[in-house]
Design goal:
Layout lengths: L8 H13 L3 H8 L3 H8 L7 H11 L3 H18 L22
C-alpha cells in the first residue's frame, strides 16, 4: 500500500498561515524574528523546519513546536523511503542484544 507524500511544512506555512492572514513573507519574517530569505526558503520548500523555527512558528500561529517538527520528519522520512533502494549500509543488527535499543 503506497503512502501519500506528506506536504512540506513550508507549504503549510504559506497556504494555511500566511495567506489567510494576508501576510507577506517580508512581514511574517519580521514578526517571526527571522530573515526574509530564511522564511522565503522555507515557504518555497528549499529549507527544512529547524527546532528554532518550529518554536517561532508555534508562538506565532498557535500550534506546538512538535507539530511542525513532526510534519518535517514525516516529509523527510517519506523522501528517504522513496529512495531507500539507493541507500547502501552494512547490517549490524544481528550483533546487538534485542533489548539494547528499547531505551532509545
Amino acid at each position: 500500500m503506497a503512502m501519500h507524500n506528506p506536504p512540506h511544512p513550508g507549504g503549510i506555512v504559506k497556504w494555511e498561515c500566511l495567506e489567510p492572514l494576508g501576510l507577506t513573507v517580508t512581514r511574517a519574517a519580521q514578526g517571526l524574528g527571522v530573515t526574509r530569505q530564511a522564511l522565503s526558503d522555507l515557504v518555497n520548500e528549499k529549507a527544512s523546519v529547524s527546532i528554532e523555527m518550529a518554536m517561532r512558528l508555534s508562538r506565532a500561529f498557535g500550534s506546538t513546536p512538535e507539530t511542525w517538527l513532526r510534519m518535517q520528519m514525516a516529509h523527510d522520512l517519506w523522501l528517504a523511503r522513496d529512495r531507500a533502494g539507493e541507500i547502501e549500509v552494512e547490517r549490524f543488527a544481528e550483533l546487538l542484544d534485542p533489548g539494547d535499543l528499547t531505551a532509545a
